[in-house]
Design a protein that fits this description.
Helix 1 packs parallel to helix 3, helix 2 runs antiparallel to helix 3 and helix 3 runs antiparallel to helix 4. With 146 residues, the chain is mostly helical. The protein contains 4 helices and 2 strands; from the N terminus they run H-E-E-H-H-H.
Length: 146
């Protein structure tokens, strides 16, 4: 049951990402600034579109590969993996939001957005550590039960 729920959340995160991506893509200028500072880095709008779409597609296709390899044989691992992809989709949304703000031409306090970006990275790291900790704890509990 929990796996079906997490699959639905993954699908909604992918649809949400696509909606946010299309909205932000429509507002980007022809030259998208990626980094400001001493040396400004920019890419064309089309390049940003194809790179972003390629990375997100590659990451989300892993869900189908993972499902094909493991199936439903290990439900906790599947739930963890789907959760990791959901968090990555959220991270991609925050990065796109950063690019949108950076290229909007408005004065914006970037410290507020930094908290969201770093928070999403911390969530990804915590979730990635979660499976090994869960797996190890299950082995220890099973050994104590015997």
């Amino acid at each position: 049951m929990i796996l079906k729920l997490i699959k639905a959340v993954w699908f909604l995160s992918l649809v949400g990402f696509m909606a946010i991506f299309m909205y932000i893509y429509a507002s980007l200028p022809q030259q998208v600034v990626i980094q400001e500072g001493v040396e400004m880095v920019s890419l064309s709008r089309d390049t940003v579109f194809y790179i972003t779409l390629g990375v997100v597609a590659l990451i989300n296709v892993l869900v189908f590969v993972f499902s094909k390899v493991y199936g439903n044989s290990n439900e906790p691992l599947s739930v963890w993996f789907f959760g990791q992809i959901i968090l990555l989709n959220f991270f991609f949304c925050t990065v796109l939001g950063y690019f949108n703000v950076l290229n909007s031409g408005e004065n914006f306090e970037f410290d507020n957005l930094g908290i969201v970006i770093y928070g999403s990275v911390i969530l990804i790291i915590i979730w990635a550590i979660g499976w090994p900790v869960y797996s190890l704890s299950r082995k220890i509990i099973n050994k104590q039960a015997v």
